[in-house]
Amino acid sequence: MNADNPVLKTLTPIARLLALLAGYLLLGLAILVTAEILLRRFMNISLQGGDEFGGYVLAILAAFGFSYALIERAHTRVEILVERVGWRTQSLLNLVSSWCIAVMAAFMAWRAYATLDESLEFQSLSGTPLMTPLWQPQGIWFVGLLFFGVVATAIAVHSTLLILRDPRRLNRLYGIKTLDEIIEEETVITEDNTGAIKP
Length: 199
Hints:
Belongs to the TRAP transporter small permease family. By secondary structure, the chain is an all-alpha fold. It has one domain. It is built from 7 helices and 2 strands.
């Protein structure tokens, strides 16, 4: 699907990389929490900062995941309504939804920058024993939200062009996934040495 979509063809590799980084951060957090539990249980030792880093990781995870979820059309939609209207109405609804997400993403990035700027101005530190400079996690968080804003805006602009030229393609690229698309994604096709295709 991304092959015939210039917007997603350009942005998907970056979104996938950010999503992978977020996944590794989550894995690291899981290891840290496990180590914290074992050390407390068996050695009565606590790693300082597990809670603090957990909060940072979850915020970064969400920010990095938004873009990939948008590209994969994984955000929640009210399918029961959209599936019962004609393709022209669907294209209008998809256009409106793309612009709503773009505006919300831009707002989130703007507020994230305001928070980051304030932390830099006042050299804010976390209220924990680690005293982490808040601009560090907030900077990473802002990058994720900024990229989400770029992706959402690019999709909204592309949707606007498509509704004027090819509304059906707009539905295909940015609408709700069809059952066939979901099945295709869930089915892994491999080809053995004899050329036979097997699930």
